[in-house]
């Protein structure tokens, strides 16, 4: 059995209870060494075989999984954040399907949640934004034409950009071209929830210079939108005394 497990955004205690248990029971762990906190591996058994996938190809990862399965060992494939975002899990799962090897997924705390926590942000403020666009700039991995940042920018919704820290000048251009004002609040969160976490509030037009000033080139998320500075918002209906819900009768 292979468990795909979300390691969380960085802090060792932000893995789920289930994920932690799988790690404790694993005979084999293949972890994404570029971003997963190696401290998480402390909870593995002494006999556990540990592989760093940052140095491996997909074929090598699959070979380790296949071998473990032949030996009836339990494997944890540990991905950063939540595996469902930019995790390259589908290609692994498709091969496992072909090989008839069983697997399941255990969610994790994505770094976009860790970044919100770093700034005590609510991404969905009433009357400000009720949507979160999670996307990336096109790098070596292409982005479908209809999903260009400029196209999403026209909504002025909250936007969180993964994998884009090296492309901030281009990003600024696309955000503004798409419809955010130059002074729309933005933030850069480096290594959210890690001990070395850093976060900076700036604006859409100062993203590149802010990152440069602080030497941030990778492992960061970019957050864009008025929610970053807690823009004037409407209080929530859910907790409004006049609002009736399934659990509470409102009073006029
Ligand atoms: N599955 C992961 C994302 C993997 S893609 C998740 O759910 O978080 C890798 C990108 O995620 C990095 O380039 C960076 O943009 C972002 N990232 C991962 N961990 C981060 C962290 N702790 N702080 C800020 N950004 C992070």
UniProtKB/TrEMBL annotation:
Broad class of enzyme this protein falls into: transferase
Give the matching InterPro entries.
4pyrrol_Mease, 4pyrrol_Methylase_sf, 4pyrrole_Mease_sub1, 4pyrrole_Mease_sub2, Cbl_synth_CobM/CibF, Siro_Cobalamin_biosynth, Uropor_MeTrfase_CS
The protein's Enzyme Commission number: 2.1.1.133
**Can the keyword Methyltransferase be found in this entry's annotation?**
yes
Which family does the entry's similarity section mention? Belongs to the precorrin methyltransferase family.
Alphabetized NCBIfam families for the sequence: cobM_cbiF
* Name recorded for this polypeptide: Precorrin-4 C(11)-methyltransferase
Name the source organism.
Dorea longicatena
């Amino acid at each position: 059995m292979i468990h795909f497990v979300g390691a969380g955004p960085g802090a060792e205690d932000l893995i789920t209870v289930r994920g932690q248990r799988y790690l404790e029971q694993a005979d084999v762990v293949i972890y994404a060494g570029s971003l997963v906190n190696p401290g998480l591996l402390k909870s593995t058994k002494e006999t556990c075989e540990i592989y760093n996938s940052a140095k491996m190809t997909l074929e090598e990862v699959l070979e380790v999984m296949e071998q473990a399965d032949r030996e009836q060992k339990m494997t944890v494939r540990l991905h950063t954040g939540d595996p469902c975002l930019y995790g390259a899990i589908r290609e692994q799962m498709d091969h496992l399907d072909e090989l008839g090897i069983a697997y399941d997924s255990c969610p994790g705390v994505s770094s976009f949640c860790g970044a919100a926590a770093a700034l005590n942000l609510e991404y969905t403020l009433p009357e400000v934004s009720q949507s979160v666009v999670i996307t990336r700039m096109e790098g070596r991995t292409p982005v479908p034409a209809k999903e260009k940042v400029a196209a999403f920018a026209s909504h002025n919704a909250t936007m969180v950009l993964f994998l884009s820290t090296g492309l901030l000048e281009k990003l600024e251009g696309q955000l503004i071209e798409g419809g955010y004002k130059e002074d729309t609040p933005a933030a850069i969160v480096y290594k959210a929830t890690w001990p070395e976490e850093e976060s900076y509030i700036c604006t859409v037009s100062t993203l590149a210079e802010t990152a440069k000033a602080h030497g941030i080139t990778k492992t960061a998320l970019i957050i864009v939108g008025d929610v970053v500075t807690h823009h004037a918002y409407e209080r929530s209906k859910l907790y409004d005394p006049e609002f009736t819900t399934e659990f509470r009768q409102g009073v006029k």
